[in-house]
Write a structure and sequence with these properties.
By secondary structure, the chain is of the alpha/beta class. Helices cover 45% and strands 16% of the residues. It contains nine helices and seven strands. It has a five-stranded mixed β-sheet with strand order 2-1-5-7-6, sandwiched between helices. The longest helix is centred in the C-terminal third of the chain and has 24 residues. It is globular, with a radius of gyration of 16 Å.
Protein backbone atom coordinates (compact mmCIF):
# COMPACT_ATOMS: atom_id res chain seq x y z
CA UNK A 1 0.00 0.00 0.00
CA UNK A 2 1.26 3.48 -0.84
CA UNK A 3 2.41 5.43 2.21
CA UNK A 4 0.48 8.51 1.12
CA UNK A 5 -2.75 6.51 1.31
CA UNK A 6 -1.78 5.11 4.69
CA UNK A 7 -1.13 8.59 6.12
CA UNK A 8 -3.80 11.00 4.84
CA UNK A 9 -3.29 13.40 7.72
CA UNK A 10 -0.94 16.23 6.78
CA UNK A 11 1.44 17.02 9.66
CA UNK A 12 1.65 20.67 10.67
CA UNK A 13 5.03 20.43 12.39
CA UNK A 14 8.14 18.28 12.47
CA UNK A 15 7.20 17.17 15.97
CA UNK A 16 3.83 15.90 14.72
CA UNK A 17 5.44 14.21 11.72
CA UNK A 18 7.94 12.47 13.98
CA UNK A 19 5.18 11.27 16.32
CA UNK A 20 3.37 9.82 13.32
CA UNK A 21 6.59 8.19 12.14
CA UNK A 22 7.27 6.66 15.55
CA UNK A 23 3.77 5.13 15.57
CA UNK A 24 4.03 3.75 12.02
CA UNK A 25 5.09 0.12 11.51
CA UNK A 26 8.45 -0.50 9.79
CA UNK A 27 8.15 -0.90 6.04
CA UNK A 28 11.38 -2.91 5.81
CA UNK A 29 12.57 -6.19 7.30
CA UNK A 30 14.26 -5.70 10.65
CA UNK A 31 13.80 -2.12 11.83
CA UNK A 32 12.90 -1.89 15.48
CA UNK A 33 12.43 1.87 15.76
CA UNK A 34 12.00 4.84 13.47
CA UNK A 35 14.96 7.19 13.27
CA UNK A 36 13.78 10.75 12.54
CA UNK A 37 15.90 13.51 11.10
CA UNK A 38 17.48 16.17 13.28
CA UNK A 39 18.55 19.75 12.87
CA UNK A 40 17.01 23.21 12.52
CA UNK A 41 14.28 24.35 10.19
CA UNK A 42 15.44 26.57 7.30
CA UNK A 43 18.87 24.95 7.42
CA UNK A 44 21.37 25.93 4.75
CA UNK A 45 21.78 22.24 3.83
CA UNK A 46 19.67 19.13 4.36
CA UNK A 47 21.81 16.01 4.08
CA UNK A 48 19.87 12.88 3.12
CA UNK A 49 21.41 9.41 3.47
CA UNK A 50 20.11 5.94 2.66
CA UNK A 51 18.83 4.52 5.96
CA UNK A 52 19.81 4.25 9.62
CA UNK A 53 22.49 1.70 10.49
CA UNK A 54 22.92 -0.50 13.54
CA UNK A 55 24.17 2.30 15.78
CA UNK A 56 21.51 4.74 14.57
CA UNK A 57 18.80 2.18 15.26
CA UNK A 58 20.09 1.71 18.80
CA UNK A 59 20.40 5.43 19.57
CA UNK A 60 17.44 6.70 17.55
CA UNK A 61 19.55 9.39 15.85
CA UNK A 62 20.84 9.68 12.26
CA UNK A 63 24.53 9.41 11.30
CA UNK A 64 26.02 8.50 14.69
CA UNK A 65 27.92 5.39 13.52
CA UNK A 66 31.14 5.08 11.46
CA UNK A 67 29.64 6.74 8.36
CA UNK A 68 28.40 9.56 10.57
CA UNK A 69 31.85 10.10 12.06
CA UNK A 70 33.29 10.36 8.55
CA UNK A 71 30.49 12.74 7.53
CA UNK A 72 31.20 14.93 10.56
CA UNK A 73 34.88 15.12 9.61
CA UNK A 74 34.04 15.98 6.01
CA UNK A 75 31.54 18.65 7.06
CA UNK A 76 34.12 20.22 9.34
CA UNK A 77 36.71 20.33 6.56
CA UNK A 78 34.11 21.80 4.19
CA UNK A 79 33.22 24.56 6.65
CA UNK A 80 29.70 23.24 7.24
CA UNK A 81 28.39 23.16 10.81
CA UNK A 82 26.50 19.93 11.45
CA UNK A 83 24.35 21.44 14.19
CA UNK A 84 23.19 24.08 11.71
CA UNK A 85 22.43 21.46 9.05
CA UNK A 86 19.47 19.09 8.84
CA UNK A 87 20.45 15.41 8.69
CA UNK A 88 18.06 12.58 7.80
CA UNK A 89 17.61 9.42 5.75
CA UNK A 90 15.44 8.37 2.82
CA UNK A 91 14.34 5.18 4.63
CA UNK A 92 13.46 5.72 8.27
CA UNK A 93 14.04 2.22 9.70
CA UNK A 94 17.18 0.04 9.73
CA UNK A 95 16.72 -2.81 7.24
CA UNK A 96 18.83 -5.76 8.29
CA UNK A 97 19.16 -9.51 8.36
CA UNK A 98 20.33 -11.23 11.53
CA UNK A 99 23.37 -13.50 11.50
CA UNK A 100 23.87 -14.83 14.97
CA UNK A 101 24.19 -11.80 17.22
CA UNK A 102 25.07 -9.49 14.32
CA UNK A 103 22.60 -7.34 12.42
CA UNK A 104 23.76 -7.02 8.83
CA UNK A 105 22.75 -3.99 6.76
CA UNK A 106 20.47 -4.83 3.82
CA UNK A 107 19.98 -2.36 0.99
CA UNK A 108 16.38 -1.15 0.63
CA UNK A 109 14.57 -1.94 -2.60
CA UNK A 110 13.21 0.74 -4.92
CA UNK A 111 9.70 -0.15 -3.71
CA UNK A 112 10.70 0.31 -0.08
CA UNK A 113 12.29 3.67 -0.91
CA UNK A 114 9.05 4.67 -2.63
CA UNK A 115 7.00 3.71 0.45
CA UNK A 116 9.06 6.04 2.61
CA UNK A 117 9.04 8.91 0.10
CA UNK A 118 5.85 10.35 1.59
CA UNK A 119 7.66 10.89 4.90
CA UNK A 120 10.75 12.41 3.32
CA UNK A 121 8.79 14.84 1.15
CA UNK A 122 6.79 16.15 4.08
CA UNK A 123 9.87 16.34 6.26
CA UNK A 124 11.66 18.53 3.71
CA UNK A 125 8.51 20.62 3.15
CA UNK A 126 8.52 21.38 6.88
CA UNK A 127 12.29 21.95 7.17
CA UNK A 128 12.52 24.07 4.01
CA UNK A 129 16.30 23.81 3.58
CA UNK A 130 18.11 26.05 1.14
CA UNK A 131 19.60 23.06 -0.69
CA UNK A 132 19.26 19.27 -0.37
CA UNK A 133 22.31 17.02 -0.62
CA UNK A 134 21.66 13.44 -1.76
CA UNK A 135 24.26 11.16 -0.17
CA UNK A 136 24.36 8.17 -2.51
CA UNK A 137 22.09 6.50 -5.03
CA UNK A 138 19.28 5.54 -2.64
CA UNK A 139 18.90 9.11 -1.40
CA UNK A 140 19.04 10.41 -4.97
CA UNK A 141 16.31 7.93 -5.99
CA UNK A 142 14.12 9.04 -3.09
CA UNK A 143 14.64 12.74 -3.79
CA UNK A 144 14.44 12.66 -7.59
CA UNK A 145 11.73 10.02 -7.80
CA UNK A 146 13.80 8.14 -10.39
CA UNK A 147 17.14 6.30 -10.49
CA UNK A 148 20.22 8.52 -10.60
CA UNK A 149 23.66 7.19 -11.59
CA UNK A 150 26.04 8.82 -9.13
CA UNK A 151 29.00 8.65 -11.51
CA UNK A 152 27.20 10.66 -14.18
CA UNK A 153 24.84 12.63 -11.96
CA UNK A 154 27.31 13.77 -9.30
CA UNK A 155 27.03 17.51 -8.86
CA UNK A 156 24.21 20.09 -8.86
CA UNK A 157 20.79 18.68 -9.73
CA UNK A 158 17.19 19.75 -9.30
CA UNK A 159 15.62 17.06 -7.13
CA UNK A 160 11.86 16.98 -7.63
CA UNK A 161 11.72 20.76 -7.83
CA UNK A 162 14.19 21.36 -5.01
CA UNK A 163 17.69 22.77 -5.50
CA UNK A 164 19.99 19.84 -4.85
CA UNK A 165 23.42 18.32 -5.08
CA UNK A 166 24.24 14.64 -5.64
CA UNK A 167 27.34 13.04 -4.16
CA UNK A 168 28.48 9.73 -2.65
CA UNK A 169 27.46 8.31 0.70
CA UNK A 170 30.29 8.38 3.27
CA UNK A 171 29.91 4.62 3.79
CA UNK A 172 31.05 4.18 0.18
CA UNK A 173 34.44 5.60 1.20
CA UNK A 174 34.63 3.21 4.15
CA UNK A 175 34.13 0.25 1.82
CA UNK A 176 36.98 1.31 -0.49
CA UNK A 177 40.48 -0.14 -0.36
CA UNK A 178 42.54 1.82 2.15
CA UNK A 179 44.79 3.31 -0.53
CA UNK A 180 41.83 4.89 -2.36
CA UNK A 181 40.12 6.48 0.63
CA UNK A 182 42.12 9.69 0.97
CA UNK A 183 41.40 10.84 -2.61
CA UNK A 184 37.74 9.87 -2.32
CA UNK A 185 37.44 11.77 0.95
CA UNK A 186 38.98 14.91 -0.59
CA UNK A 187 36.50 14.72 -3.48
CA UNK A 188 33.64 14.29 -1.00
CA UNK A 189 34.77 17.37 0.95
CA UNK A 190 34.98 19.30 -2.33
CA UNK A 191 31.37 18.31 -3.12
CA UNK A 192 30.19 19.54 0.28
CA UNK A 193 32.02 22.84 -0.24
CA UNK A 194 30.34 23.26 -3.64
CA UNK A 195 26.93 22.45 -2.18
CA UNK A 196 27.48 25.00 0.59
CA UNK A 197 28.49 27.64 -1.95
CA UNK A 198 25.43 26.98 -4.09
CA UNK A 199 23.15 27.23 -1.07
CA UNK A 200 24.73 30.50 0.07
CA UNK A 201 24.41 32.02 -3.40
CA UNK A 202 20.74 31.02 -3.49
CA UNK A 203 20.03 33.21 -0.44
Amino acid sequence: MDAAKEKPEEPRSLAQLNRMLAAAPPMVEGGTRAVPGEGPRHALLALVGEQPGDQEDREGRPFVGPAGWLLDRALQEAGVERDKSYVTNAVKHFKFIRRGKRRIHSKPTAGEVRHYRWWLERELDLVQPRLVVALGATAALALAGKPVAIGRGRGPMVLDGRPGYVTIHPSFILRMPQEDRAAAFRAFVADLKKAKGLAERAA
